[in-house]
Amino acid sequence: MSIEVVDQPDRRRYEAVVDGVVGGSAHYELDGDTMTFTHTEVDDEFEGQGVGSELVRRVLDDVRERGLRIVVRCPFIRSWIERHPEYRDLTAPG
Length: 94
Fold this sequence. Notes:
Aminopeptidase; alpha+beta; 5 strands; 2 helices
């Protein structure tokens, strides 16, 4: 299974493209240097295959490379960061 993660800024989301098919997305709002994640979803056919985790990992790596901070309103991303403390430094204060 091949997963590519692509930012779609016009749609305000990152998409996980699984073997050529959009299999999930992480929705965001961008305000200056802060990206607020509001919702993450994975299509039923890709549930339990690591698509959501790979999506979040690559999204947060992109955020880090871009020098942005995050606000997490999405429960999936919040719980993922709790399990991967090496990404906590991306969280905006407050």
